[in-house]
Specification:
This protein has helices at 33-36, 105-108; strands spanning 3-8, 17-19, 44-56, 64-73, 75-80, 89-91, 118-128, 136-141. It is mostly beta strands and 142 residues long. The mean pLDDT is 94.
Length: 142
Amino acid sequence: MAQITLIGKDHATVDSEFYYLGPMEECAECKFNKVCFNLEEGARYKVVSIRLQEHECHEFDGDSVTAVEVEKVCTPATVGKRQAMEGSKITYKGSECKNLSCENYALCHPIGKVPGTKYVVQKVNGDLDCPLGEKLVLVDLF
């Protein structure tokens, strides 16, 4: 189901994706904050349509924000083999790996996914080669 929110005019293109990282303190008194703050913190969204309304926003250096319709989309992440079952609700464990140069680092530390939080494994995409020998599977979390 699509939701309406406001994003920077330059980012308002159909099929663009972004992570909502939460409300900014500076926006607490803004008359539009209920529209900007109505998304799930840490979730990934895709712009599905653009509305005609534009509004001035001091957080965008005098530029404007545009009303858009967005849908929440899955986030690619790695999980252990035991958690990789399509449709299952899991408690995300995260990764303790500190190897920043690993090609899988971003998948093992996905933006917005918090260890200890429950997510649904929407799709299992297959095994992942881990340089440390961990048995990891690439999944889409929702």
